[in-house]
Design goal:
binds nicotinamide-adenine-dinucleotide, Dihydrodipicolinate Reductase, domain 2, Putative dehydrogenase, nucleotide binding, NAD(P)-bd_dom_sf, Rossmann fold, Gfo/Idh/MocA-like_OxRdtase_N, Gfo/Idh/MocA_Oxidoreductase, alpha/beta, eight-stranded mixed β-sheet, 24% strand, 357 residues
Length: 357
């Protein structure tokens, strides 16, 4: 019989979706034992909805619960680092929402703590989880797609004043960034998941949609280490909401689903160069088993990794790569120049990309 892990979810915003999509869809793999939130009304509403008896406002109390195996952190970004370090130190496995932390220096501290920890740490990047994204990954990894030429990545969403009626949003200190960091981070993770590392970045950012501190429009030009070019745009001022990735390879062109919050869903448009490539793709996908979408897929993959003693399906190296791109984008926007990756401890934005750092 497979092991069932007991989970404590911290934060009842997106945490509610983790419970609904990620844990309740796998009652054989997970049980949500405890729920934690500072807001008593929200805590009661979500705990009642899912029949979770153990409720607390205290993260310290959660860490003292002997029967909790996994601490799932779904609180605002600026709280993540301390909670991750405390949860790892308590010997638990940890799941944490994006952005994992607020700088490359902080993620390097987390990676260092992870090497000494008993538990595993998995950052959330649930947009990878969908049959479309994972089939594209398999076709590319099998070498069928060939050379990557160009890609476009769009995060065209809408956010209005009511969304920013939440004290942590819209401010550098608490949100740590705008559309680049909070929203487009998913599509940019998909770009590197499918096309590999970024070599250099040129970026423009602006705040034009809402009356906030952080940016809400970005345009990026990426040169990938493979030689491919990617253009990425993101705004929170689009009238309809879509996320879209289109990738042109030597032998295959891929286009993602356009669902704003689940572009990884299948089927993707897969255009082979000829019948021989079509046959290779068919053979490559012949034994396809659905992966589960969004949190359903990512949490199941985490369970499988824990049981196998394998690295998590999304790693802190992935989170570092994502924050390295964020750092490069803000630096390019500031300096109006190309920024080369990788970014190490000697870089002026290594410790922080915040404007007043
Ligand atoms: N993966 C995704 O698609 C996705 C979507 C939305 C948000 N997020 C991320 O999830 C995180 C939370 O975002 P949200 O939209 O759910 O925010 P939110 O403000 O709606 O919810 C956060 C909750 O955390 C609680 N909280 C804050 N500090 C706490 C503490 N110290 N102890 C216990 N509870 C605490 C708040 O009371 C609040 O209910 C952010 O990092 C955000 O970027 C990810």
């Amino acid at each position: 019989m497979t092991k069932r892990f007991n989970v404590a979810v911290i934060g009842c915003g997106i945490g509610r979706s983790h419970i609904k999509e990620g844990y309740r869809t796998h009652p054989d793999l997970f049980e949500v034992r405890a729920l934690c939130d500072l807001d008593p009304a929200r805590l009661a509403a979500v705990a009642d909805e899912f029949g979770i008896k153990r409720r607390t406002a205290s993260f310290t109390e959660v860490l003292a619960m002997d029967d909790v195996d996994i601490v799932d952190i779904c609180t605002p970004p600026a709280t993540h680092k301390g909670m991750i370090l405390d949860a790892l130190a308590s010997g638990r496995h940890v799941i944490c929402e994006k952005p994992l932390v607020g700088s490359l220096k902080e993620i390097d501290e987390i990676i260092d703590a992870e090497t000494r920890a008993r538990g595993r740490l998995m950052p959330i990047f649930q947009y990878r989880y969908g049959d479309g994204a994972m089939q594209a990954k398999r076709i590319i990894a099998a070498g069928i797609a060939g050379k990557a030429y160009v890609g476009t990545a769009e995060t065209l969403w809408k956010r209005t004043a009511d969304y920013y009626d939440n004290p942590w949003r819209g401010r550098w200190k608490s949100e740590l960034g705008g559309v680049l960091m909070t929203h487009a981070i998913h599509m940019h993770d998909l770009v590197t998941f499918l096309l590999g590392p970024v070599d250099r970045v040129f970026a423009r950012t602006a705040t034009r949609v809402n009356a906030i501190e952080v940016e809400d429009c970005v345009s990026l030009s990426l040169a990938m280490a493979s030689g491919a070019f990617v253009s990425a745009t993101a705004t929170l001022g689009s009238q309809d909401e879509i996320s879209r990735l289109r990738l042109a390879f030597e032998n295959v062109t891929f286009e993602s689903a356009h669902e704003a919050y689940s572009p990884g869903d299948g089927p993707w448009t897969i255009l082979p160069a000829n019948e021989a490539v079509a046959a290779e793709i068919a053979a490559c996908l012949a034994d396809w088993t659905p992966v589960g979408r969004r949190f359903e897929g990512q949490m199941a993959a985490f369970h499988a990794a824990l049981v196998a003693g394998a690295p998590p399906p999304v790693t802190t190296a992935d989170a570092r790569r994502s924050l390295e791109l964020v750092t490069a984008v803000y630096h390019s926007a500031d300096t109006k120049a190309d920024v080369l990756l990788p970014i190490g401890a000697g870089h002026e934005k290594y410790a922080s990309w915040l404007p007043d750092a």
